[in-house]
Design brief:
Layout: H1 2-30, H2 34-46, H3 50-60, H4 70-83, H5 87-100, H6 107-121, H7 130-145, H8 152-180, H9 183-196, H10 203-219, H11 223-243, H12 250-270
């Protein structure tokens, strides 16, 4: 019984403290004590109360503009949004800090975080990759601006990861035309992907799909266009097999080559 009373008492004290803290925060929101709002905003950020911290810091950001604390307010404002995983707003405020307070002690971290916020917004390869391009650009700019930074290896890793994603995006987009049966468009898209990323890990697959698209285009063409298109298929076979003489597609590539040659031989015999 005595232990239960102790537990109940402790819970009551804890609840009272929470309510008191909430009350203090609510009062502070309506207060014009901007210094206290700033101090409480930083404290709430350090306590992991990111939403509350951001609300208070939003209220004082313009008040402290032009003062010695302006960059610090902006820094914690940005960090509070990052803590909430609102990478769009966090990136906006980090960029504002970087462009407005060039001599700030937070400038290196802010420059990095601009790119890192883009990185956190980068979607899966199938979707629009604007954030991915922005990540690469921001990280490259960071390395130019801070060549001695300890963050350089991380920047390089992120750039490589984003570059790999763009390669995959290019492959997926090019392959889509093939999957839909638009073989003429597929050939163009697949070639463009190879031109843009000649060292891609999908190179063999892309070259095989060009060959197969060329064959299927010829096979489904009107008779007047078949000779030219089967000849193009033979040319594509030689390009593919010279680079990948052995592999998972070798047998099918040879089959398409032989079928194309058989058509051409038959046409020559009829001429």
């Amino acid at each position: 019984m005595f232990k239960n009373r102790i537990v109940i008492g402790l819970l009551f004290v804890a609840a009272a403290a929470i309510l008191s803290g909430c009350g203090e925060y609510e009062k502070l929101l309506k207060s014009r004590d901007f210094q206290k709002k700033y101090e409480m905003g930083v404290k709430l950020y350090n306590d992991g109360e990111y939403a509350k911290a951001a609300t208070l810091l939003d209220q004082v950001a313009n008040i402290f503009r032009g003062t010695t604390k302006a960059d610090t307010v902006k820094y914690y404002q940005a960090k509070s949004y990052f803590g909430q995983r609102d990478y769009l707003m966090a990136g906006y405020y980090f960029n504002e800090l970087s462009t407005t307070y060039a001599s700030s002690n937070f400038i290196e971290e802010s420059d990095f975080m601009v790119g890192y916020c883009y990185y956190k917004q980068s979607p899966r390869p199938e979707l629009d990759q604007e954030a991915t391009y922005n990540t690469i650009t921001a990280m490259q700019m960071f390395m130019v601006k801070h060549p001695a930074s300890e963050r350089i290896p991380e920047c390089q890793e992120i750039i490589q990861e984003m570059s790999d994603k763009l390669v995959e995006k290019s492959y997926i987009s090019a392959r889509l035309y093939y999957d839909l049966g638009y073989y003429k468009s597929a050939i163009l898209a697949l070639r463009n992907s190879l031109i843009e990323y000649p060292d891609t890990k999908y190179r063999e697959e892309l070259m095989f799909l060009i060959l197969k698209s060329s064959y299927l285009l010829a096979d489904n063409s009107v008779p007047s266009k078949q000779r030219e298109r089967f000849q193009a298929t033979v040319d594509e076979y030689y390009s593919f097999i010279s680079e990948f003489p052995e592999g998972p597609h070798t047998r099918e590539a040879k089959r398409m080559y032989e079928a194309s040659n058989a058509y051409l031989d038959n046409q020559n015999n009829q001429s």
